[in-house]
Amino acid sequence: MLNRKKLTARLGQLLIPLIALALLLLFNLLRDPGFFAIKVAENSMGGKVLTGNLISIIDSASELAIIAMGMTLVTAACGGQDISVGAVGAISGAVFVKVLQGMGAITGPSVLLGLVACCLATICFKLFNGTLVAVFRIQPMIATLILYSCGRSIAYWINGDATPQLNSPILSAIGMTIPGIPVPTPIFAVLLVGLLLALVFRFTNISLYTQSVGINQGAARLNGINPTFIKLLSFVLLGVCVSVASVIGISRLGQLNHKTLLVDIEMDAILAVAIGGNNLGGGKFKISGSILGAYIIQMLTTTLYAMNVSPVNVKAYKAIVIIIIVVAGSPVVKEKLAGLFRKKRSGGFPAAAKKGVG
Amino acid sequence: MTGANNASRTRRREPLTDAQLLTTISICIFVVMYAAAMVFLGGGFLKVQQIFDLLNDNAALIIISCSLTIVMIGGGINISVGGVIGFTVMSCALFLNAHEGGPMTIVLTVLLALGIGLAFGVLEGFLVSYLEIQPFIVTLAGMFLSRGLTTMLSVNPVKVTHEGFLALVKAKIKIPWLGYIAQNGNLIPAKLEIGAVVALCVVLLVYLMLRHLRFGRNIYALGGNRQSALMLGINVKSTCFWSYVLSGLLSGLAGLVFIMHKPAGNASVAMRSEMDAIAASIIGGTLLTGGVGNVVGTLFGVMILATIQKIIALSPLNASWWQEMASGAMLGFFIILQSVVLSNRSKHKKAN
Question: How far is A48 from chain B (nearest CA, A)?
């Protein structure tokens, strides 16, 4: 009994997403045990790579997971979401390709330069968003609506209507697999970004400051934290995440299409944040929850594809599962369930789940 | 008598409220923009028909913008409106094609459209208000659901072939005295579609509701400060619920108006129109934080966005990406203007 309580307390907000993930896995196990098969296959270049549904889920959720990490920070600090990540990702991709084309041959240094250039461009656009949010006190969703509606046009303006093809072993190493390593590279990119963020949180106070700005900006300011700086920083970190994701997205396909690069990823990223149990109103956050949310979304999509659901209809089933997950995680239902599990209420828990609406 | 006079005098001395100020700004900008278009572009802009065309083309957008204004005043958001339009249009198109017959079919189509909107409204309202789930996520799920259901019904475009309905589509209200003389000397009357009239009626009704009905005032109270509204004895949950139901109903109506303008169902109908509606509401002076807003401003917000697109379509920069960039720049301009105006006012108030 005590053990279970301890476990619940430690997992906290991760409980619901973990249960959802476990149920999805169980569902697949019952439906078709072959879903989990992982095989070693040869790719077009003759290297050995691991294939299988699980690998493809973890691989194709990479962009989403990376963006969800940044989105969690922005959500926590600003109490709102950035809906321009897809459009800014397209701009970032356009800059990346422009730099690569300008350099001529695609070599290691030129890719690195392209990455730095697109990071800088993305950070500029995110600082624009961040300034509107932090200085002009505009709701994040509204502030980012501007770039949401015209970001892809800017990408078009940078790179024209063409969909340039980029064939290079370096890009395929980034987007698919490095020769000799059987695991797709994007998975390592997620690990790298996650690790960097974890290190930043371990050795700085940014995590704590972000939470305090999200919970009560005025109180944070009185305690000597600069809310403007923290909010801008969250947008900058999101910008870096977006540009990494866009480079992965381009490398994966070997081409740039400003209309389809990272399209609609903003909605999925916000969903990932919410499914991970984070409060969309800001405050406390768990990045691990958002990553878990990203994998749940991709798992769901892949499961539906495996069940021969047509790609255009996936959205409807996805919506139903999302509704079930958020209903299970809603404060009211949580309270009811908690009441069922323990008759005597120790208080605190239901109140803590709710955040005062100001 | 003197009391009434005093009251009116003090009211006149009172400065405009935030919402009135923002609405006034947007109306002024619309007038200035339209006048500039008349002077520099001339042509179509000199005819009354141009304004009617803007109304005809954007009737559905006007209605969903009203629906979003209601929800946003209540402190929520509804991004499923575009999806609901798409689903309604597709269902109505299939329904009309499957049933021949007279006016009864058309009445059933209207009921179907409103029913779909109502169903989405009730579902989302329940999840948002009684289960306290974040409105953004609930309506995002609603958007996915409606888009998915639309493609489940049909992936291919569906053209309406029902003759009675097509007659209704072609029916236009002609106003001869607002028309113009064509080059061959014939008088061409100004034409207004039924959908545009419906949209204007919706604006009027929602305006009256928000201003004079208890429910409307409750929405403002809810969006302004939920805790205070609760303390005042307002049933916060039911107000929130009914605002979403109304919003859903209006999106269904918008779907109907849409299919009366373009009688064909398509998986990409009204794609991303929810963001246009949000932009229109904001340009019209509604704050996403809730409690402030005006549906007349929203109407002008839609008209501003539509006029920009028309101006760019007639100018040498005729490309869809210029339109998008201009709309984005306009939105940015409005947002910053609002923020600066409001913060100046609050500083001024504090100083007093």
Answer: 38
Nearest CA in chain A to B326: A150
Q: Which residue has the tokens 């309604």?
A: B88
Between positions 258 and 317 of A, the ones with CB within 8 A of B are 267, 270-271, 274, 280-281, 310, 312-317
User: Is the Cβ–Cβ distance between B137 and A270 less than 8 Å?
Assistant: yes
Give dist(CA B262, CA B264) in Å, integer. Answer: 6
The two three-digit tokens of residue B338, written as one number: 């609002």
pTM here is 0.89
A71: its two tokens: 């989105």
User: Is the per-residue pLDDT at B110 higher than 90?
Assistant: yes
What ipTM was assigned to the predicted interfaces of this complex? 0.87
Q: Are B298 and B81 in contact (CB under 8 A)?
A: no
Instruction: Note whether residue B1 is domain-resident.
Output: no
User: Do strands A48-52 and B187-193 pair parallel, antiparallel, or not at all (unpaired)?
Assistant: unpaired
- For chain A positions 198-227, those within 8 Å of chain B (CB to CB) are none
pLDDT at A171 over 50: yes
Mean pLDDT of the A10-36 span: 87
Q: How far apart are CA B136 and CA B277, in angstroms?
A: 15
- For B244-284, what is each residue's pLDDT tens digit? 999 999 999 999 999 999 999 988 888 889 999 999 998 89
B298: left (phi over 0), alpha (psi -120 to 50) or beta: alpha
Quote the CA–CA distance of A278 and A275 in Å, as a whole number: 7
Q: SS3 sequence, A96-162? A: HHHHHHHHCCCCHHHHHHHHHHHHHHHHHHHHHHHHHHHCCCCCHHHHHHHHHHHHHHHHHHHHCCC
Cβ separation A326–B325 shorter than 8 A: no
Could you tell me how many CB contacts below 8 A there are between chain A and chain B? Answer: 140
CB contact (8 A) between residue A357 and residue B282? no
Q: How far apart are CA B269 and CA B314, in angstroms?
A: 24
Contact between B257 and B63 (Cβ < 8 Å): yes
CB contact under 8 A, A326 and B327: no
Each residue's pLDDT tens digit, A245-298: 999 999 988 888 888 899 889 999 999 999 998 888 888 899 999 999 999 999
The answer to whether the Cβ–Cβ distance between B145 and A153 falls below 8 Å is no
User: Which H/E stretch holds residue B181?
Assistant: strand B172-181
Q: Does A352 score more than 60 pLDDT?
A: no
Token pair listed for B97: 């094609």
Which of B61, B136, B281, B347 would you mutate first to test chain A, the one with the most A CBs within 10 A? B136
Nearest to B197 by CA among B244, B253, B263, B265: B253
- For an interface test with B, the pick among A139, A150, A310 (most B C-beta atoms closer than 10 Å) comes out as A150
Residue B201 sits in a domain whose CATH number is: 1.10.3470
Amino acid at B268: S
Question: Is there a domain that residue B8 lies in?
Answer: no
Range of the domain at B266: 18-38+47-343
Question: Given CB atoms, is B107 within the 8 Å cutoff of chain A?
Answer: no
Q: At what angle do helices A265-275 and A62-78 cross, to 10 degrees?
A: 70
Q: Domains of chain A (ranges plus CATH)?
A: 50-308 (1.10.3470)
Kindly determine whether residue A330 and residue B131, on different chains, have CB atoms separated by under 8 Å: yes
Mark which residues 311-350 of A lie under 8 Å from B by CB.
312-320, 322-323, 326-327, 330-333
Indicate the number of domains in chain B.
1
